[in-house]
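Standup notes, structure subgroup. Blocker cleared on the zinc ion input:
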Amino acid sequence: MKNASKYAPGFFPPENPSADWARRSRIERAPRWCAIDLRDGNQALPTPMGVEQKLEYFGLLVALGYKEIEVGFPAASDTEFGFVRRLIEDDLIPDDVTIQVITQAREHIVQRTFAAIKGAKRAIVHLYTSVSKAWREQVFGKSRDEVAELAVYGAKLCRTCAKLNDGCEITLEYSPESFTGAEPDYSMEVIDRVLDAWQPEEGREAIVNLPSTVSLASPNIFANQVEYILKNLGSREFVTLSVHPHNDRGTAVAEAELALLAGAQRVEGCLFGLGERAGGADLVTLALNMYSQGVDPCVDLSDLPAVRRRFERLTGMAVGERQPYAGELAFTAFSGSHQDAIAKGLRWRAEHPNIKWSVPYLTLDPADIGERAGADVIRINSQSGGGGAAFKLEHAYGFRLPKGMKHDFGAEVGSRSDRLERELTADDLHRIFMAKYSPKPYPLRLVDCHFERGGGERIYTALDCEYKGETLRLRGGGNGRLDAVAAALRSGVDLDFKIDDYEEHALSSGSTASAAAYVGVDVGGKIWWGVGVESDIIFASINALFAALNSYIADGGETEDRQ
Ligand code: KIV
Ligand code: ZN
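Run returned:
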């Protein structure tokens, strides 16, 4: 990169900012949301939506609970105009929803905009004029005062039209477009002059909307700029301060959040950050950032996958796999240590259902927004570990592996996935698990066994088995049945082992009840594992022992210590 000297910061930070926002750490309530998908978002689409698509999208925003919706730029095209008329004439705007339309400060455009909203019960008319130094010099070729006059001209036109628009409750909104590239005192002057023209009063409020039309600085600068305007608005009553961040620097959400800390009361943005160039403030992320801190976002995102699908169909845009909250992989853990922590956290949560959500790596419960939840957030590939693989196996098939076996299973799963170069499903895991740990008929095969009690706690067994093709009848005694079988085997086959670990649990309930038993055998300090699944727990454990020993023999005793 050779050309850094070509660039310089193009923003104007307020001098000596009070930065009160920096002392606040929490957004305590949801702001007024204004969904601008049908205007700002739509104008950023390679193929803008038609009337029918916009109608469906409008219905989606209403269903999600957005109460202020910018529906278009009616003077820009017949489609835009026709869409607004359709909403009004077909009575599609719920009583608690206000539509917003945008206009430039030109007479015929303002008039066409007001013509579009005729008959609406309520509407916000959004006037914008650009104020930045770059615009004044390069686009308008006008002085500060001349550019401010343009805003005042537009403001007066809007005020006159609003007065004539009988029966429609109109709120006027002004955006100093390119605000982030303007001197703060100049922006303030223009805003003041617009508000002087509007004279907002009770029942006729005004909105001042500060756009980072192009985001030019880190979000703290935007927060300082917003705070500067807010403080200089002084005691102006009936003015709502709104923000409209864009995402050129990847910080639109951060700008919106810091602006809220600075005192903004309203946020304009789009679902999934739709908007010009790199997009705008993502209303979904903003809402769920609040939700996951215990603040009601006042919109319903409980079926986010359905919202995402409709958004993608209507806009032709794809929601990225790593998009916060909404992305296909936004909650997925592939890495072993993450999976282990999530698995433990979810288990802990199940045991402590009444404490606040704090599961590692999951900022919220994916189930709350209709996403893959529980074991489904864990996906297995060569990066994964035994904790995650075992957790997934448990959720899909009920096996609860002992700790040492999880490590062993994890190593097997990791190398299998590495070899296959693909993700493994729960069914794959089950196949791998059974193939590796369930009893094989050779070289050691259980034929039958009987038990009888001796004196005290001792149990004796008569064990019929085959070993390398030879039929054997062995006897042994121990403190329990498994112990007795192990002793019998040690007496008759050339295997010097001890039982290192043994666990069992019921696998399912009802008439098909079965039990799973896990046995780890220690041969010369190394551990081999087996599993047995039977309706009878004793036979499950004996099968697990035979499986572990067969595994040792099959490995030729050469395997490294797997713990
Ligand atoms: O980004 C922007 O500045 C806008 C305005 C027209 C409000 O969309
Ligand atoms: Zn915009």
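Discussed briefly. Residues 336-423 form one domain.
Next: hand off to the docking folks.
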